[in-house]
Amino acid sequence: MIQNTLKLYQAPLQGFTDFTFRNTFFAVFGGVDKYFIPYLSYGKGREIKKSSVREVFPESNTALPVVPQVLFSDEQELFDLVSILVEYGYEEINLNLGCPYPMATNKGRGAAWLQKPEELNRTLTQLYKQGYSANFSVKMRAGLTNDQDFRETLRVLNQFPLTEIIFHPRTASQMYTGKANPQLFADALSLAKHPLVYNGDLFSESDFQELKTILPEQNAFMIGRGLLMDPSLPLRLKGETWQAKELRKKMKEFHDQLLEANSVRLQGNGHILMKMNQFWTYFSESFENPHKAMKLVKKSSNLLKYNAAVVEIFRDL
Ligand SMILES: Cc1cc2nc3c(=O)[nH]c(=O)nc-3n(C[C@H](O)[C@H](O)[C@H](O)COP(=O)(O)O)c2cc1C
Q: Helix axis angle, 244-265 relative to 269-283, nearest 10°?
């Protein structure tokens, strides 16, 4: 039975969920209502990397519902990035208030905003004054170092007509250690005026059931690493079932199409192998012996050996 009320979003993972991945995932699996594009940001010297801009080209994203995201430290940077996305015709733009990496937070970006609510208030006031044609949503963590920062942040966000807020109940200093705390999400629900989307550590159907016992009314979830480990997860959460053999065939189809698409996109076997290696860091978790799968992939020094390794993994593991 397909659960029509359940909304599932694909989380943005810089380096993993690029347009090749998104489009292949959409074609083979799907079950996702919105796909978030990893953040667009300034690089060194206020220049935007060409590869990041390519990610938001409308022609790379025609087949599926996508939401681009911006990572910014101040008004100027925010307006510059938003203007590009508005020009490309995006109707929703997500504001990153959660990136935990010190490289971002030390420069006032991402989760650093959780400690400067007044500046956030001024910046959003100016953003809305610009009258952009796009709507805005937010993706945030619970705090920078203090898991209560979100309270003040939500008080600010409540004053603006955001479409929704994706909330990952961890601090930035936790990075990905420990566990996301659904109780913080429950606290946020009672404070936020906007619809909240739950994000964090949703890896399986049993995680989902557990979350539903703590958050019984919650029907919107964003999945990051869980979807990379098991691309069938969104459809399974929506009630679809497969025989093991059928699922294995679909996983192989997904892998083969991704390899094909990366071969068209990337130049040189080294780049293709590197990209597929990265993909397997999560995808190997779908197999009974992830460590062995990863080892086989890693030791493939060329595409011929890689293809043989993939055949072995799908046959034996
Ligand atoms: C390698 C990596 C890259 C990420 N890149 C982004 C990003 O560009 N923008 C963003 O908002 N979150 C980013 N995230 C965070 C994820 O979107 C998500 O919030 C986090 O992984 C928690 O969800 P999960 O437990 O379902 O994976 C990234 C996470 C990882 C591990």
A: 150
Residue 281, ligand 1, Cβ within 6 A: no
Is the pLDDT confidence value at 1 over 60? no
Counting ligand 1 atoms within 8 A of each CB, the residue from 9, 14, 170 with the most, and so the one to mutate, is: 14
Distance from residue 173's CA to the centre of ligand 1 (Å): 14
pLDDT tens per residue, range 227-272: 999 999 999 999 999 999 999 999 999 999 999 999 999 999 999 9
What is the spatial distance between Cα 123 and Cα 128, in angstroms, rounded to a whole number? 9
Fold topology of 7-237: TIM Barrel (3.20.20)
Q: How confident is residue 11, by pLDDT bands cut at 50, 70 and 90? A: very high
**How far is residue 203 CA from its own chain's centroid?**
14
Task: Tell me the pTM.
Answer: 0.97
Q: Pick the atom of ligand 1 nearest to 12's CA.
A: 17
89, 58 Cβ separation under 8 angstroms: yes
What residue owns the CA closest to ligand 1's atom 28? 13
